[in-house]
């Protein structure tokens, strides 16, 4: 190819020692180091251009640096895998000037102490040719290499090299790749591996599986670059571990499956799907089904087609009289994120904890709000027993998550009482949960599980659940009211949860609706909770039962069963007028509270959640029609359709935060 481009070749050096093992690579570098000094003394170059990260380039850079010849290194600063990383960075330290392809590579060079003034961000020179490549007769190239019956986008290009730092594993990975390609049953162009250590073993694998004679495969040692461009541009997929897959192929938007660790740190476009490791062909086969035939946007991460003019200008600007001594600086490294097949196949999940007055529940909750598995225990009465049980249940759930192929991103805790979510501390609890004041929940859980932990009030968690999974999804302003043992709630304003200056916002159960109403558990009286909570209904049910006015025909309460709110509701349904009056009063109190909320917050939606919501909804709407200002009477009030708002809300704290930057 060099001869075809009519270069004036001054010297030819034969330095590659055959053998395709580690020793042969070392001997090749040594042989080049012996031969190069004589050539460089004769040529006396002003600048030596060294490209990439191959071991033969290291010999050239070493010789030039020791002989005080200026070195211009192209494609430094990138991160991949195998020994290439070490060689590339070694050449960087020997080089005086640097031409890099991406913004991240530039930042890596700077963080490696290279002088910013001697770094050019030019893009990849090969992109100059890729982005200008136009061959209308690409079908003739496809037919020449793959056969007359092959169509565009209906074949695969495979190019896989040995990983010199883990030859045994890379050969196993190659074997699994060929098995997957055979099973996938598409015409495939397989290029032989390079001459790195391990390549002989990979060729043996190809021959053992009969690839050279298989009707679906075409095995070749070399394809001219111009033709290779057309083959990958019109392929249904490219698979392997060549840098070409994660770099050049992005220019065409061709789907790529990058295998193993050889290119582990490379920047990639969205067309690249990584399969870091595989024990069977199934994961690779899954990746082929995901990628084959897709068309991604063309990526210009590695260049815009104008690298060569920039490099020429940079070369001309070099002052050959300036000292060769390098300068140094220490800026930060920029991170890189890309797709990974493991992330796709695993279920991103959260551990959700719900601390109720009676039960302690832990659940594995998926990104879609599905409860994968739930664990329930009675909530202990003492702090020591309770915290130990929480830790035990969370550790068991985290271990089970691995078996269920769930990746736990963090822990979310929903608890009654007033909570400082910034510190993860329960400040004051409800009377239902004893020994639960000034409790740091975040620290013990985070220390035990090594995961981030979020804590919030159960009412706030219900609102978060509605925002992510329920009827509040996409709404800017809404309010959630929980009707259960107590009355709680949460307020979403401009898409964000309101906590208040002392974390006491949305204590909606303690809105006073009557100056001379019944006593409330908070110490006041006339609160919504004193009328409409499960505890309030239980209190009224007991009064009726004690007066023999609760049970009606068709009802009975076993002697060993405590009278509760559900008995009152059942009596009302069976026509008990006193029970109906109590429920109507409770619904009216809740309705007045909602009217106050409408007048104060003016939300676009009110969601009633909890076991009592469906029994109150009609009365609440009637009160709004009678008592609310006309400007808010059109605000919709609905019953939540979420079964587990506390657990889902606890999970949403984790899922919203930890995945915000990734998905």
Automatic annotation (TrEMBL):
InterPro entries: ATPase_NBD, ROK, UDP-GlcNAc_Epase, UDP_GlcNAc_Epimerase_2_dom
Record: active site: 458
One GO term of the biological process aspect: UDP-N-acetylglucosamine metabolic process
Cellular component terms per the entry's GO annotation: cytosol
Single annotated GO MF: metal ion binding
Domain spans labelled UDP-N-acetylglucosamine 2-epimerase: 5-316
Binding site for an N-acyl-D-mannosamine: 418, 430, 458, 507, 510, 529
Pathway: Amino-sugar metabolism; N-acetylneuraminate biosynthesis
EC number: 2.7.1.60, 3.2.1.183
UniProt cross-references to SUPFAM superfamilies, sorted A to Z: Actin-like ATPase domain, UDP-Glycosyltransferase/glycogen phosphorylase
Subcellular location as annotated: Cytoplasm, Cytosol
Stored Pfam families: Epimerase_2, ROK
Superkingdom of the organism of origin: Eukaryota
Residues binding Zn(2+): 510, 520, 522, 527
Enzymatic reactions: an N-acyl-D-mannosamine + ATP = an N-acyl-D-mannosamine 6-phosphate + ADP + H(+); UDP-N-acetyl-alpha-D-glucosamine + H2O = aldehydo-N-acetyl-D-mannosamine + UDP + H(+)
Keywords, ordered alphabetically: Allosteric enzyme, ATP-binding, Cytoplasm, Hydrolase, Kinase, Metal-binding, Multifunctional enzyme, Nucleotide-binding, Phosphoprotein, Transferase, Zinc
Family assignment from sequence similarity: In the N-terminal section; belongs to the UDP-N-acetylglucosamine 2-epimerase family.
UniProt subunit comment: Homodimer. Homotetramer. Homohexamer. The hexameric form exhibits both enzyme activities, whereas the dimeric form only catalyzes the phosphorylation of N-acyl-D-mannosamine.
Protein name: Bifunctional UDP-N-acetylglucosamine 2-epimerase/N-acetylmannosamine kinase
Organism: Physeter macrocephalus (Sperm whale)
Gene, per the UniProt record: GNE
